[in-house]
Amino acid sequence: MISLQAVASYLPSQSVPIRSMQDALGLTDAQIKVFERFYGLSHILRDPDGTVVDLMLAAAGKLDALRGREHLVRYVIQARTMPVIAPYPVNPIHDVRAFLGLEHAEAFAVHNHACASGLLAVELSGRLLAADGDPDALALIFTGEKTFTPAAQTVPGTAVNGEGSAAILVGLDGDRDRVLSYATHTDGRFSAGLSLSDEAAAEFQQIYPETLAAVLNEAVEKAGLTLGDLALVLPHNVNRVSWVRLCKLIGLPLDRVFLDNVPVTGHCFCADPFLNYQSAKELGRLQPGDHYLMAAVGLGATFSAMVFQH
């Protein structure tokens, strides 16, 4: 059974009010007010002097469980939202692998599920490790990207993006944070992502809550549970209002969705659920034996959910 052996997060120290980004993002006063008052957004985090390699290494530097186990790492995986994050022939995940002394491991990136690629990487790493047949082997996953272009800085009308990162050590065994199920659904009608027509974008907003609700229900059913059995949902941090609507739709108490990071980190691409895991754990929101769910939606449109037992 797949388990998260350890999770470490890195949150840059520079906190930027989204109001100060109004001109750069081309937002009106009314749009800023919607982001702040309706969507629950306030600040995002930036690491202005750091590269994407620096983001990954900063998270890896806090992953104490990796120390002395480097030789067990078979795969180093970057789960990312954007298909291109560096100019050819630069390959950030190869640079990170070399810096950490993991040249013996296979290194690659996954991005086809956009912001849901982090959960895909966990599921994929479990399948790869199981096929290898070594019960002690590990996979090291990185999430989090730079907001280096205007398109990377915001999801229009939905979110403002930040630069937090996470490092996740995955193994086949463990008595904590075991993966109980995984569900994912891609609706190819919306594959154009940010280039959707106004009509298609409106249709995506309409089907969004019902589709995500169906995937959440599928994940908990696969785990032999109900939504009521979940101690916590760790979401992607696009905004608060989308989760308020979803909770009303599925009858889940809003206080079971960890929304503490939404106003302070912004949406950190694939890293959100893992950043929320670390924060919830530090705040004592997860107790041994608790069932919890990570959820993410990627432009394209991929809806994913994964159920764990802490």
Note the run of SSEs as H and E.
EEHHEHEHEHEHEEEEHEHHHEE
Give the structural class: alpha/beta
CATH topology of the largest domain: Peroxisomal Thiolase, Chain A, domain 1
What's the mean pLDDT score? 95
DSSP, total strands: 13
Strand content: 15-25%
Instruction: Provide the CATH top-level class of the largest domain.
Output: Alpha Beta
Number of helical stretches of at least 4 residues: 10
| Distance between the amino and carboxyl termini | 13 Å
Tell me the major beta sheet: 5 strands, mixed
CATH superfamily of the largest domain: Thiolase/Chalcone synthase
Spatial order of the strands in the main sheet?
Answer: 1-9-6-4-5
Q: What's the alpha carbon Rg, rounded to whole Å? A: 18 Å
Number of domains: 2
What can be said about this structure in brief?
The protein has two domains: 169 residues, Thiolase/Chalcone synthase (Peroxisomal Thiolase, Chain A, domain 1); 132 residues, Peroxisomal Thiolase, Chain A, domain 1, CATH 3.40.47.10. It is built from ten helices and 13 strands.
